[in-house]
Design brief:
The complex is a heterodimer of chains A (959) and B (184). Chain A is α/β, with parallel strands linked by helices and 959 residues long. Chain A contains 29 helices and 38 strands. Chain A folds into five domains: 94 residues, Ubiquitin-like (UB roll) (Roll), CATH 3.10.20.740; 150 residues, no CATH class; 174 residues, Rossmann fold (3-Layer(aba) Sandwich); 163 residues, Dimethylsulfoxide Reductase, domain 2; 119 residues, Beta Barrel (Barwin-like endoglucanases), CATH 2.40.40. Chain A has a seven-stranded mixed β-sheet, sandwiched between helices. In chain A, strand 11 and strand 12 form a beta hairpin. Chain B folds into two domains: 92 residues, Arc Repressor Mutant, subunit A; 88 residues, Glutaredoxin, CATH 3.40.30. Classes of the chains: A alpha/beta (959), B alpha+beta (184).
Chain lengths: 959, 184
């Protein structure tokens, strides 16, 4: 600790920091632009100048840029000195000469860092009378607006986009007064993290285009903490809503980042930021639907599709209740199908309703196997699940088969930061502080070993030291070779398991040895794998490599095992046994039907045709006597259900979810939503209450009033969730946290076009949050306050005021709640022979066969986000990716329509020839609209039935 | 296209080798020569732009794309370079490029008036080309000939101790030559 004096006040500060971060952390209002807590200092904007005095005698001192000044013991600084204030005033006056002063029509207005800093500096009168430079703006795609005239040339955007996120299509163009931040030509910003520019830009150059369509000022928004529902990482978000004032306006307006040091820090991916629009989709279910007696005619509807009519919710609940009655042996069977994208509360309510023995995961056998494997591996105490800062600090990373850029994007962004770690280390040796961004980035140092093995070159490729692409079989043998080398602890090639691919191919052996050595030599190695690859062998190998490393090092090794959906890991904990998958359910249904027992399926927020091969899913739904579905959006399953209940989307309700690292997090309702929507568990509880069912579990369900009641029962029922009640944040007795700001306008007027009554704001029965401006506003007083602002700081750059130190944890955030899993080395997963899970190429291997494997896309693979307007407008066309050598052998050209058969399913996709995919495989896109069920079929041997030449219509030559 | 190794296992996908269709053999030879001097290909980006400009007079979008494909540098990065240097032309310049010095010595000796006269005479602003395509007017921060200020570079020739009279003569002479050429 060093002692320094700022404006005559003595304070202690940690050595090695820069003066700006210390001032900000102490709550001193010191204006800045180019500095960013995640990106360090470059000293470009000159806005944070202060006076540094040599000693007590030195009255005059000299100007220094605080962001570039490392504090020294006994240092004397003055932020308030006249010379410093005058200098800062001059800087901002100069920066503002070209600024259009269009705040009233600028979307940044009211949450603008430039506005804040201008006010803070006291530059209130404009003296410059000359002409302003003007720019032509670019079209940057459906997500981001471009208004270059507002630019103050702080270079934050390119530093973020290029240096931090690895983008290559945004640059500083031109020079001098004409510097222009844009693309080389109009077009969508292609980096998957482009949306963060909206928050990184201190002014309104980059703004959220999806938000433009239904814009409201920040002070008019209502916010609550939420969790991103579009993957398993569990990024914290602050969705913003406002009651529609005009017809056609939606409630939900946008999503911004909500800082959580351990997960998302300051950044979200584009699917998370722009995927929110699904909740505003005109297709949203808002009424209870009952099967109509009219049959749907016509081929376009698809087989088994029922027509529906809206019924009052009470009637729907009564109808549901009738299906809950007369259950029991020999009577009528009720089976619950849970969902990895639904909260613990919803899934647990269904489990209680149906009984644990009748509660199924709503996943195919492979999906469930993969998730259980992740869960089991994570239970081993030689393995730790890495937080984002830990990933960023890793000094050797092995990514085994998982395309994290597309399945766990925020993790890929963290991996990208790790690539600089040897430079940071070298900088430390040279006594260069790590926040000296430009200096650190230019230091010559060997790259951090980041080894990617998979079947497609990932977007992360530019920071990988070694990338390998091959068939799953080859990847598994690579992993075996790495494992063997780590276990033996030497680089001898002859220790490679004989008879494997690795021992035959010197290339694999060589890279495996290098990889093993890099991991073994690293202080903080990290192994990444996940469910996306759909290869249990690779997951298992990742676990084995991590444990072997842990044995060597004598401490737990960091891993990140990516789960596909927001509550995948939570769902697995609720299952009575490991085989509660849909294939088994199918058997049970068939059996019951044969015995003449009536079967009711309750499907909770799950589209079975994304879990099973489509016709299989349709058969299952057709076979059941009654299907009751609960969901946000219509899908293949709801269209075949006899009763459909509309449920609240994530930003509309409270719920708890478990992310890929086993951390339980809660999302709160931001607004109430339209129509008769409510949480799935409430529909289930309503139905049960209306029934004549009486049992312990039924009484339990009847007693549930609030979200916390469900959570409490869950914690009592399953020990793995024993810590769960701690996820409820409490506020001082008698207080609520305000969702709206003090300045929220139109409270009594916004609905006056429809009715004159001044209705009281709705009450939140679940959370200590108010739907009005009354309550706690200070983000330091409660972590439930998601609107990040402070006096003088309207933008969410003010987050530093609510953290324990710059980049520290949020003030008041309780210890994270994790699953209480038994943590002991579990030998059984280790003993499983790796070869056993290898894909066995079919016996009738024919020359035209390729192994079909899954590919994911950030824009396109998300079930819910695909219904978002912006995302849907740039959806990837479905494709089949083939290595040119394979394509040549099969006589396939770029753009040909190829007809494939995977088992009994036949698909027609356009070919894409690419050297970036491994030979021997054919990559098929997962989760794309119309092809939602492809994932369930993979991996499997694909037979190419015929090729329709590009340009030709229907007649293709049979091959 | 064939798989270069023929092996199932591949370390890094092979970038398409061979000359990009848009660059000439001479340009590629010169670029290769330059890039042999640097540790990475990206460092040769600026030289590549100069080579292409020398051959074609300016850098079109297609030329930029061709260099980008050949050196594996992002187009945006090359565009950043090309727009930073005012002597790299992203639009076809006039036959004669005028660079008027704007240093303090030239300013004291009246370069502003000269510039005003030039802009009036040619009907262009700095950075623009005359309608007849003969002259492009650029500003230059200092040509290093302060003792003979005000100065101007016309093509590669330095014109010193400028006056309106001198400028008028120079322009007239150039115009005459271009008129003769087009008459031929």
């Amino acid at each position: 600790m060093l002692t320094i004096t700022i404006d005559g006040e003595e304070c202690e500060a940690e050595a090695g920091q820069n003066l700006l971060s210390i001032c900000l952390a102490r709550g001193i209002d010191l204006p800045y632009f180019c500095w960013h807590p995640a990106m360090g200092s470059v000293g470009a904007c000159r806005q944070c100048a202060v006076i540094e005095h040599k000693d007590e005698q030195d009255q005059q001192g000299q100007l220094v840029m605080s962001c570039m000044t490392a504090i020294r013991d006994g240092g004397r600084y003055s932020v308030d000195a006249h010379a410093a204030r005058e200098f800062r005033g001059g800087i901002i006056e100069n920066l503002m000469t070209n600024h259009p002063h269009d705040c009233p029509v600028c979307e940044e207005g009211g949450e603008c860092h430039l506005q804040d800093m201008t006010e803070m500096t006291g530059h209130t009168v404009r003296r410059y009378r000359g002409p302003k430079r003007t720019h032509r703006n670019q079209y940057l795609g459906p997500f981001i607006n471009h208004e270059m005239n507002r630019c103050i040339a702080c270079y934050r955007c390119t530093r973020y986009y290029r240096d931090y996120a690895g983008g290559s299509d945004l640059e500083a163009l031109g020079r001098n007064n004409q510097v222009y931040f844009g693309r080389h030509e109009d077009g969508r910003l292609l980096n998957g993290f482009s949306g963060n520019l909206v928050e990184v830009c201190p002014t309104g150059v980059f703004t959220d285009k999806t938000f433009s369509r239904h814009y409201v000022r920040k002070w008019d928004q209502q916010m609550a903490p939420s969790i991103c529902e579009h993957c398993g990482v569990g990024c914290n978000t602050a969705p913003a809503a406002r009651q529609p004032g005009r017809p056609g306006d939606p409630w939900l307006r946008r999503v911004t980042n909500l800082y959580n040091r351990d997960i998302n820090g300051y950044f979200l991916c584009d699917r998370g930021r722009f995927g929110y629009e699904y909740a505003n989709s005109p297709a949203r279910l808002s009424q209870v639907l009952e099967r109509d007696n009219v049959d749907v005619i016509g081929s376009s509807a698809g087989e088994g599709v029922l027509s529906h009519r809206e019924i009052p919710p009470g009637e729907g609940v009564e109808a549901f209740a009738r299906h809950l009655e007369d259950q029991g042996p020999g009577k009528h069977l009720l089976l619950g199908i849970g969902s990895p994208r639904s909260s613990l509360e919803n899934n647990f309510a269904l489990r209680t309703l149906a009984g644990a023995e009748h509660f199924y995961a709503g996943l195919g056998a492979t999906d469930l196997q993969l998730l259980r494997l992740v869960d089991t591996i994570q239970r081993d105490d030689r393995i730790r699940s890495a937080t984002t800062p830990e990933i960023e600090q890793a000094d050797a990373i092995l990514i085994l088969g998982e395309d994290i850029d597309n399945t766990a994007p925020r993790v890929a962004l963290a991996v990208r930061q790790a690539a600089l770690n040897h430079r940071r280390q070298r900088a430390a040796e040279l006594k260069i502080p790590d926040w000296q961004d430009a200096a650190v980035r230019q230091l010559p140092a060997p790259p951090v070993p980041i080894i990617f093995v998979g079947w497609e070159i990932p977007p992360l490729a530019d920071c990988c030291t070694n990338q390998m692409i091959g068939t799953p079989e080859i990847l598994v043998s690579f992993a075996e070779a790495v494992l063997a080398t780590i276990r033996k602890g030497s680089g001898d090639k002859d220790i490679l398991p004989a008879g494997t691919e690795a021992s035959q191919d010197s290339d694999i052996g060589e890279v495996a040895t290098e990889t093993a050595q890099a991991l073994a030599a690293a202080k903080r190695p990290l192994v990444i794998a996940g469910c996306g690859a759909r290869q249990p062998g690779l997951l298992r190998a990742a676990g084995l490599i991590a444990t072997a490393l842990a044995e060597k090092k004598g401490n737990a090794v960091n891993t990140y095992l990516a789960c596909p959906e927001v509550n995948s890991l939570g769902l697995v904990q609720l299952l009575a046994s490991g085989d509660m998958h849909l294939e088994r359910l199918q058997g049970i249904v068939t059996e019951a039907r044969q015995k003449g027992t009536a079967v009711t399926l309750v499907v909770l927020e799950n589209d079975l045709s994304r879990r099973l091969e489509r016709s299989q899913a349709r058969n299952l739904l057709a076979e059941a006597d009654t299907v009751i579905a609960l969901d946000h959006l219509p899908n293949d399953t709801t269209r075949r259900a006899h009763l459909v209940f509309p449920t609240a989307a994530t930003p509309e309700c409270q719920g708890s979810v478990v992310n890929s690292t086993g951390r339980v997090q809660r999302h709160y309702g931001v607004y109430e939503g339209i129509g008769f929507i409510q949480e799935g568990w409430r529909w289930l509880a309503d139905a049960l209450s209306a029934s004549n069912q009486h049992s312990d579990s039924a009484d339990q369900i009847r007693s549930w009033q609030h979200c916390d009641d469900v959570i409490r029962t869950l914690a009592e029922t399953l020990p793995v969730f024993s810590k769960l009640p701690a996820v409820s944040v409490t506020v001082p007795e008698g207080f609520l946290v305000a969702r709206q700001s003090h300045r929220a306008s139109g409270r009594t007027a916004i609905g006056s076009a429809r009715h004159v009554a001044e209705l009281p704001p709705p009450e939140d029965t679940d959370a200590p949050l108010s739907y009005s401006m009354e309550g706690i506003h200070d983000p330091a007083a409660s972590t439930l306050q998601a609107m990040i602002r402070a006096p003088g700081w309207t933008s969410n750059q003010s987050i530093h005021q609510f953290l324990h130190g710059i980049n520290g944890p949020r003030i008041g955030r309780p210890e994270p709640v994790t699953l209480q899993r038994t943590t002991a080395p579990l030998p059984h997963w280790q003993s499983v022979e790796l070869h056993g899970s290898r894909h066995q190429p079919g016996e009738n291997k024919d020359a035209k066969g390729l192994l079909a494997i899954p590919l994911y896309r950030l824009i396109g693979s998300g079930e819910l986000s695909n219904s978002a307007e912006g995302i849907a407008s740039v959806m990837t066309e479905a494709f089949a990716k083939i290595h040119p050598a394979d394509a040549a052998a099969l006589d396939i050209n770029q753009g040909d329509e190829i007809q494939l058969s995977l088992g009994e399913t036949s698909l027609q996709l356009q070919s894409q020839l690419d050297f970036e995919i491994a030979p021997g495989v054919i990559g098929l896109p997962c989760g794309l609209p119309k092809f939602g069920d492809i994932a369930a079929l993979l991996p499997s041997q694909a037979r190419i039935i015929r090729v329709i030449r590009y340009g030709q219509k229907m007649e293709g030559d049979d091959c | 296209m064939t798989n270069p190794t023929g092996k199932v296992w591949q370390r890094i996908p092979a970038r398409q080798e061979g000359p990009a269709p848009e660059l000439s053999t001479e340009e590629i030879r010169a670029i290769d020569e330059e890039r042999s001097h640097y540790e990475n290909d990206a460092a040769a980006g600026l030289e590549a732009l100069r080579i292409v400009q020398r051959a074609r007079g300016w850098i079109s979008d297609d030329s930029l794309r061709a260099i980008s494909a050949y050196l594996g540098i992002a187009e945006a990065e090359l565009e950043g370079l090309a727009t930073y240097y005012q002597l790299l032309f992203r639009r076809p310049p006039g036959a004669e490029v005028l660079q008027l010095c704007r240093s303090s010595s030239c300013w004291i000796l009246g370069c502003e008036q000269l510039q005003g006269w030039l802009e009036q005479e040619l009907q262009v602003r700095p950075g623009e080309t005359t309608a007849d395509g003969i002259f492009t007017l650029l500003e230059n921060p200092c040509l290093g000939a302060c003792d003979r200020a005000p100065v101007m570079l016309l093509g590669e020739a330095l014109h010193t101790n400028l006056t309106e009279e001198k400028l008028r003569e120079v322009l007239a002479e150039k115009r005459r030559r271009h008129a003769d050429q087009s008459a031929d």
